[in-house]
Amino acid sequence: MKRASQTVIASYLDRLHALGADLSISTELASPTEAVAQLADRSGDVNAARRDEPYRRAITGMYARLARPPTSGSRVRARRVRRR
């Protein structure tokens, strides 16, 4: 399971990286949805070069969250299924 989850997360990180390269839409050209704007604001990305690129900032935040190693408190425990 650990290896499979690492493979899936690596795939997600690769896709986010590719999206970040493609989604350079400036707020001068299009207004993001409220959800994207909020995600960008919570991303922690304070790079001045991306100040007007909410999609890239949002993706940067998602990438950082996925790349962060899990903490012991964040593990999700599988529930046992009771068989009859």
Folded structure, characterized:
The protein has three helices and no strands. By secondary structure, it is mainly alpha-helical. It has one domain. Helix 1 (2-22) runs antiparallel to helix 3 and helix 2 (34-41) packs across helix 3.
Task: Label this structure with key terms.
84 residues; mainly alpha; 3 helices; 0% strand; elongated; disordered C terminus
Structure at a glance:
The protein is mainly alpha-helical and 84 residues long.
Number of helical segments with 4 or more residues: 3
Roughly what is the average pLDDT, rounded to an integer? 86
Strand proportion: under 5%
Distance between the termini: 26 Å
Relative helix content: 40-55%
Number of domains: 1
Low-confidence stretches: 76-84
Count of DSSP strands: 0
Principal-axes geometry comes out as elongated
Give the helices and strands, then pairings.
Layout: H1 2-22, H2 34-41, H3 54-67
